[in-house]
């Protein structure tokens, strides 16, 4: 493909970055609409989405998905449960396993907020043939697997801050 292929890949990555920015802004607006902190709204959406896929989350899995420590996740879940946005249940034969469920109103609210966009996105994708969408689905799966593998590796050491020779505090190395 030569230079044309590299330029196309660069444009695709830029498009994905812009889409990610739009998604982040939409999530921020959803949080404000619900009157929640953005991390709380993200957690609620992750819990509801996992339920929709038929694979409800545990607190540990939620902690991984939203890049919070277990202590911070517990505090977040306490807030959400007190507000009636989620419930913690013990559905597994091992009663120590906790399953997170969204409150019934959350799915309704998410549908109300995201429904118009879902219709627009579906309409935007509908002209594309199923084979192309299948290729794109594989493309996205490959990109996500690559990102997951990269995020599982330890990040580089933090650079020294300009004011001192001490390294800056390390982040968890997550892009989410």
Q: Topology of this structure?
A:
Elements: H1 2-34, H2 38-52, H3 59-66, H4 70-82, E1 86-89, E2 99-102, H5 104-125, H6 130-152
Antiparallel strand pairs: 1-2
Helix pairs in contact: 1-2, 2-4, 3-4
What do these coordinates show?
This protein is mostly helical. It folds into three domains: 1-35; 36-102, Arc Repressor Mutant, subunit A (Orthogonal Bundle); 104-150. Helix 1 (2-34) crosses helix 2 (38-52) and helix 3 (59-66) crosses helix 4 (70-82). The radius of gyration is 20 Å and the shape is globular. It has a two-stranded antiparallel ribbon with strand order 1-2. It has helices at 2-34, 38-52, 59-66, 70-82, 104-125, 130-152, and strands spanning 86-89, 99-102.
CA-based gyration radius = 20 Å
Can you summarize the main beta sheet? 2 strands, antiparallel
Q: Return the CATH topology of the largest domain.
A: Arc Repressor Mutant, subunit A
Query: How do the strands line up in the largest sheet?
Result: 1-2
């Amino acid at each position: 493909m030569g230079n044309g292929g590299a330029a196309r890949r660069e444009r695709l990555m830029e498009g994905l970055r812009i889409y990610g920015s739009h998604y982040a802004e939409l999530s921020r607006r959803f949080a404000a609409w619900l009157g929640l902190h953005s991390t709380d709204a993200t957690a609620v959406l992750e819990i509801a989405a996992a339920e929709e896929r038929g694979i409800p989350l545990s607190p540990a899995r939620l902690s991984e998905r939203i890049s919070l420590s277990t202590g911070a996740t517990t505090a977040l879940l306490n807030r959400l449960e007190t507000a009636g946005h989620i419930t913690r249940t013990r559905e597994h034969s091992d009663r120590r396993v906790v399953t997170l469920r969204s409150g019934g109103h959350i799915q309704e609210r998410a549908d109300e907020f995201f429904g118009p966009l879902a219709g627009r996105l579906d309409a935007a994708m509908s002209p594309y043939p199923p084979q192309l969408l299948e290729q794109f689905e594989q493309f996205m799966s490959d990109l996500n697997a690559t990102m997951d593998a990269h995020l599982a590796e330890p990040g580089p050491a933090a650079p020294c801050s300009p004011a001192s020779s001490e390294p800056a505090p390390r982040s968890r190395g997550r892009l989410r």
